[in-house]
Amino acid sequence: MRLLITGSEGQLGSELKRQLRAGGCVLGELPRELAGAKSFCTQFDELDICDEAAVDSYVREMCPDVVLHCAAMTDVDGCEEDPAQAERVNGTAVRYIAQACQGVGAKLVYVSTDYVFSGDKHSAYMTDDACVPQTAYGRSKRSGEENALAYCSRTFIVRTAWLYGFHGKNFVKTILRKAAGSDLIRVVSDQYGNPTNVEDLAYHMLLLAATERYGIYHCTGGGVCNWYEFAREIVRLSGHGCRVEPCASAEYPQKAKRPAYSALDHSALEAAVGDKMRPWQEALRDHIDRLEEME
Prior knowledge:
- The chain has 295 residues and is an alpha/beta fold.
- The chain has a single domain (2-170, 195-222, 262-277), classed as 3-Layer(aba) Sandwich (Rossmann fold).
- The protein is 42% helix and 18% strand.
- The chain has helices at residues 11-22, 52-62, 76-81, 83-104, 136-151, 171-181, 198-209, 227-238, 267-273, 280-294, and strands spanning 2-6, 24-25, 28-29, 38-42, 66-69, 107-113, 155-160, 163-164, 184-188, 192-193, 196-197, 215-218, 225-226, 243-247.
- The protein has a six-stranded parallel beta sheet with strand order 4-1-5-6-7-12, sandwiched between helices. The chain has a two-stranded antiparallel ribbon with strand order 2-3. A two-stranded parallel sheet has the order 8-11.
- α5 links the parallel β6 (107-113) and β7 (155-160).
- It is globular, with a radius of gyration of 19 Å.
């Protein structure tokens, strides 16, 4: 099997590469279909995903069986400042990727987000709940979902949220850095969601890629918390003496609106490949322990 990973140096792309090399992760072994799979990796400087002709030519040359499309514009406030660019990268470019996949008969795994929802619900979002994005980022990612489904008949949409890993910027790294240099940090307590370890997400993406069960899936850490609770647990597990205090989102205004509640339901994932997504506390503890081992 041949796999193409876009955004291969980001936190998700890096983890996908690691698991493909290792043949699995702490959650289990990868399916037999992926054993010995050859992966091709590309970044923006190697392939301009906003160039339709370049995308078509590259995919035809590589002729992958699966494209894991991780490349995206993920700066939520940056998308709000430049919605046209967000749409080009997160929306239009996905059409080019999807068309190219369809042309060579490849499966497409497109990574999406909880931001496609309004964030006004008070229970976990189902895969078929109405998408009413409230930000330029959310609208562009929803556009990407629609293009993927419309232009490639073998598409998996995998929505995730609050992602952290060993590579790139993320909330865990930010809190650890702040805790190391301060006696007190304040974190919003009125936004709820699912912290997600990139290892768990990558594993389930690869499980899905080995199937023919195309459609929309939610893939996030188990359990719900707010950002303050998440930060408090990060600090506790790290052993820093820093205090963490809750505050309201209104005290830290941002360009883009954040969802008040965006937990995602895993029923579709469970039905397709089983749900081995760890409770967020367990996955976070494992991540912190391994960070300490790496130091």
